[in-house]
Design goal:
The chain is mainly beta. The protein has a single domain, classed as Beta-galactosidase, Chain A, domain 5 (Distorted Sandwich). 5% of the residues lie in helices and 46% in strands. The protein has two helices and 21 strands. It has a nine-stranded antiparallel beta sheet with strand order 6-7-8-9-21-18-17-12-15, with no helix packed on it. Strands 5, 10, 11, 13, 14, 16, 19 and 20 form an eight-stranded antiparallel beta sheet that branches. β8 and β9 form a beta hairpin. 41% of the residues are buried. The model has no long low-confidence stretch (mean pLDDT 97). The structure holds 6-O-phosphono-alpha-D-glucopyranose. The site of 6-O-phosphono-alpha-D-glucopyranose (G6P) has 10 residues, from β19. Belongs to the glucose-6-phosphate 1-epimerase family. Keywords: Isomerase. Its EC number is 5.1.3.15. It catalyses: alpha-D-glucose 6-phosphate = beta-D-glucose 6-phosphate. This is Putative glucose-6-phosphate 1-epimerase.
């Protein structure tokens, strides 16, 4: 099958399915411009999507790649993770070639966003699917007359068989702010990160790609533009408090997020900012 793009319904909501080379595929919903599935040529699903996720727009969909903007988490006055996770985005570009399929979804300010955050903006989320890789690029445009500041993230939920068995390499030597430990700032001295409890870390000014060692779900992870990397797993107790995660959900996910979380980004009137996360099956 040649690469291409089809309009589908996914869990009852409008979405696009990208068919890439060698049988790869991805699904992106218009709700939140959220990527909800990525299947590599080996037939394996690489993203975690909760079986208890809610798709009616009342809350963000639990899983895939939520787009957080203009605020990461609860680090500010706005709703948690900002304003765009529960909006309907427009499809502004779609194209495919022999070795890729690509879509761009966009959204911008409206009366509801300006009531909470008084700035004019346009956002574009581009998903490019190739055989063994996806690139997700967020473009923020300041379309107003005044500068603004924002934080943001591509809050990627990676699917793993057992989170206790995986290791994330590439973050050693970086400082992180530990949100699971009263925001204490620590320096990672281990050569790899393993998860054996609630983990909620903002690694700052990340300079290297990461390698997720997770058996046949292993991935290379790279980011550009986004200065920080957030690693999140709710573990048992926090998972039990999240109504849209099953009791064992914590075990099957690891969020590795490309973020501007600790470092606020400044954007002058008329300027654009780009941030990208690349996932490669290895
Ligand atoms: O429940 P959500 O609003 O989707 O947030 C889920 C998680 O997102 C980020 O990774 C934050 O660092 C966590 O503190 C937060 O719990």
């Amino acid at each position: 099958m040649k690469p291409g793009i089809e309009d589908i319904e996914f869990h009852g909501i409008p979405a696009l399915r990208l068919h890439g080379p060698q049988g790869s595929s991805a699904v992106i919903a218009r709700l939140g411009a959220q990527v909800l599935s990525w299947i590599t040529p080996d037939g394996r699903e690489r993203l975690y999507l909760s079986e208890r996720a809610v798709f009616d727009g009342s809350v963000a969909i639990r899983g895939g790649v939520p787009v957080c903007f203009p605020q990461f988490s609860d680090r500010g006055e706005l709703p948690r993770h900002g304003l765009v996770r529960t909006r309907q985005w427009e499809v502004s570009a779609r194209r495919s070639g022999d070795d890729y399929a690509l879509v761009t979804l966009s959204t911008g300010d409206d009366a509801a966003s300006r009531a909470l955050w008084p700035h004019a903006f346009n956002l574009e989320l581009t998903l490019m699917l190739e055989a063994d890789r996806i690139d997700l690029e967020l473009c923020v445009a300041n379309t107003g007359e005044l500068p603004f500041e924002f934080t943001a993230a591509l809050h990627t939920y990676l699917r793993v068989v057992q989170v206790e068995d995986v290791a994330l390499e590439g973050l050693y030597g970086h400082d992180y702010r530990d949100a699971a430990n009263a925001d204490a700032v620590q320096r990672d001295s281990g050569t790899e990160l393993t998860v054996d409890g609630e983990t909620d870390r903002i690694y700052r000014r990340v300079r290297r790609p990461q390698l997720l060692r997770a058996g046949n779900l292993s991935l290379g992870i790279q980011q550009q533009g986004f200065p920080d990397t957030v690693v999140w797993n709710p573990w048992v107790d926090k998972c039990a408090k999240l109504a849209d995660l099953p009791a064992d959900g914590w075990r099957h996910l690891l969020c590795v997020e490309a973020a501007a979380a600790d470092t606020r980004q400044q954007l002058a009137a008329g300027d654009e900012w780009y941030g990208r996360q690349t996932l490669v099956a290895v």
